[in-house]
Amino acid sequence: MKKIDFHIHTVETVSDHHFVFNMDTLQKYAHTMSLDCIAITNHNMFDLEQFNEIVSNIPITIFPGIEIDVEGCHLLLIDDGNELTDFDTKCKKITTAIPTKHDSISVEELKVIFPNLTKYILIPHYQKNPEIKKETLDKLRDNITSGEVTSAKKFKYCIGDTDALVPVCFSDMRMEENKTSFTSRQTYIDLGEISHAGIKSCLRDKNKVFLSKEDGHRFFDALDNGLKLSTGLNVMLGERSTGKSYTLDKISNQSEFEKIKYIRQFELLQKSSSDDEASFKILLNKKQSLFTEDYLREFKSVVDDLSNVDLENDENLLEQYISSLLKNAKDSAKVDSFSKAKLFGETKFIESELNNLKSLIDAVQKLIDNTEYRSLIDDHLPLESLKSLVVKLMTEYSNEMEVNLKKRYLNDVIETIRNNLKIRTASQPIEDIDLYAIAKNRKKVEKFKEIVISIKKKREISSKDIQGYKIVSTRKSFSNAQELKSFSGTKLKFSTAYTHYADPYIYLTYLREIGLDESDYYKYFARIDYRILNIYGYEVSGGERSEFRLLQEISDAQQYDMLLIDEPESSFDNIFLLNKVNKLIKEISKNMPVVIVTHNSTVGASIKPDYILYTSKVIEEDSVKYQIFAGYPSDKYLKGVDGNTKISHEALLNCLEAGESPYIERREGYEILKN
Amino acid sequence: MRAPILKEEKDMKYLKIDDNKGYYLLNGQDWKVIDEIDKNDLLKLLDLALGEEFEMDEYNQDSIGNKAHQIIYNNIYEKLKELNNNQDRFNDESHSQYKDIIEKYS
């Protein structure tokens, strides 16, 4: 098994923060992380001189490479190093083509500079920002087999997904001065002897890449001190001040590319009733806002659509049309050779709206293409008839379109002639008007009013049980301007607008004048309330609020790469921890690494972890030495990274039960009570 | 596309030519002279033209003696005819307008 890191920066470019390369740091990194092979990959450039220097200083295999901005994504291109001058020349062309951090080249341009892409190992940012776009990946399909991901969670996901690329995890680190710790994001490959071709071949096969040296994907290297973690559930035990929180902090700061959810000790503790209520309110508001946005999404599209409707303007157009018509009629006596021309008073053609016909064609096409319900459709509508229908509809569409184009052309002609006649005659020309558009706008407003009337009707719109709590959403109308104002959370005045609340269209025109954000108008038509109730249907109590927040925080971790929890027992009772927290954490750990620090036997022992970590502190002469031991829950001994061992039974009883004799005493006490 | 219906029954007719003049009807009873038409009347005619039954006397220059009436009647007749011709399209579009959205919030 070989350990590789093919994403290392050694030169500051326009795409990097300021740093100064340090050879010692790179040496130390390669040594500390026991790397067998690395690649130097700077942004859009290759420094041949520095590369040669690195090769002569670091006694492992080093490949020359470059990280190129291609179609908005970052692509690692690793050369075999056999023709360094040629590679250097090509990289210089990349440097010229991508002068700033906002530039990138196309795949086609890349192929001009590197005509033989099969010669290289290409690795794009895959589940990592800026991620490769599907169309770019499609264009490079023949040359790309693996993609860079940011975490153990994503790595495992790609291994399990048959359509995903072969995942690789790299450090993406800048080898700068004074670096004291290193990220442990590297990849193990199942290879006997390092070679460019060998690595390339491994990166085609998901059975050849691993998160850990000996344990496949069940473990991954977590810290540069050799600590490994299970990709499932890890429980960290240890007495006070033995470095548990320190270790969690270190894990959480491990990589800037990894999203880690860290629930710190006492974070959810109910400090005071008012504080707790305020935090709960913030959570509730956030959830309410998301729910409202989701529930009213379609209504928002209607309100947005209404921004194109101006009934007042339509009436003005009608007014102009009528008065110009009447004036023209009155002036008919003044008719001269210009105004007498028929085209002077001609109205414009109205183009047919073809959306309905288009959706009809799509619908028939769907019937033709459907395979799932083919026999059912065939029973009622023979395929041949459907095909014939779609052809006829398309012909109709094409004819209508042709007529529209002719109308458009003629309208231009009419307009030009009318304008020419207009400047030569004393007669009032008749303004043109699109009655169809005006009628459509009026209908739109009518439907809009219908929707608003529905939305204002008081109703429970959703009720669901989440983790033993009931979340109920209701809708109703706003009762007064003050309610609108407090809902807005602003000092804006709603009194005038509210007097028109009963007429949604007029109300909308007044909302536009208040100073609200245009994208928020839709929120002011109906009130959506979002309440969290306990299992009995009552408002949640202080304790329940904290419990709900913890459960929500843990659930929220699904969107992250790793979950770290520091002593959840600090704020909660055992029954809650056992019944709800343990269950939820177990579930989450099926998809991502979880590390939980605890002193509590309910959490520590009952949760049945995949891996146990035990921290301890040893005072030797004048110095304090922190140690971490680890092992499976069934192991007799926990092993330290330095080779020392600890008896599991003793470690567990000390941490979770305050030692063996108190544990026996407690157990006997319970027995007496029971009998 | 549907052609405008041009029948003689009074109760369905909204634009007529009588005694060399053009007239329009809004309330089903009182015919008003075409040169009295204003914005609000035209709006009402617009709604009627999109209704179930809407009829008008076809414009005929020879039937209207008054030149001003000829211009007004012809222009409005053409506009309403175009609208009435597109009634099916209008109804289809109106029917599908926000249909799913109305159902969601009902």
Which descriptors would you attach to this protein?
heterodimer; A: 675 residues; alpha/beta; TIM Barrel; Rossmann fold; ten-stranded mixed sheet; eight-stranded mixed sheet; 23 helices; 23 strands; globular; B: 106 residues; alpha+beta; four-stranded mixed sheet; 15% strand; elongated
Task: Describe the protein's architecture and organization.
The complex is a heterodimer of chains A (675) and B (106). In chain A, 43% of the residues lie in helices and 19% in strands. Chain A contains 23 helices and 23 strands. The two termini of chain A are 58 Å apart. Chain A is α/β, with parallel strands linked by helices. In chain A, the strands form 4 sheets. In chain A, strands 1, 2, 3, 4, 5, 6, 7, 8, 9 and 10 form a 10-stranded mixed β-sheet that branches. An 8-stranded mixed β-sheet of chain A has the order 14-18-19-13-20-21-22-23, sandwiched between helices. Chain A has a 3-stranded antiparallel β-sheet with strand order 15-16-17, with helices on one face. Among the domains of chain A are: 2-215, TIM Barrel (Alpha-Beta Barrel), CATH 3.20.20.140; 219-259 and 560-674, Rossmann fold (3-Layer(aba) Sandwich), CATH 3.40.50; 336-426. In chain A, helix 10 (297-306) runs antiparallel to helix 15. Helix content of chain B is 44%, strand content 15%. Chain B contains 4 helices and 4 strands; from the N terminus they run E-E-E-H-E-H-H-H. A 4-stranded mixed β-sheet of chain B has the order 3-2-1-4. Chain B is elongated. The A-B interface holds A 298-299, 301-302, 315, 318-319, 321-322, 325-326, 328-330, 332-333, 345, 347, 350, 352-353, 355-356, 359, 430, 433, 435-436, 438-440, 442-444, 447-448, 450-451, 454-455 and B 35, 37-39, 42-43, 46-47, 49-50, 67-72, 75-76, 78-80, 82-83, 86, 89-90, 92-94, 96-98, 100-102, 104-106.
Largest beta-sheet characterization of chain A:
10 strands, mixed
N→C terminal distance of chain A: 58 Å
CATH superfamily of the domain at 2-215 in chain A: Metal-dependent hydrolases
Proportion in helices of chain A: 40-55%
What is the rounded distance between the termini of chain B? 33 Å
Average pLDDT of chain A: 88
Q: Biggest interface, and residues per chain?
A: A-B, 40 and 38 residues
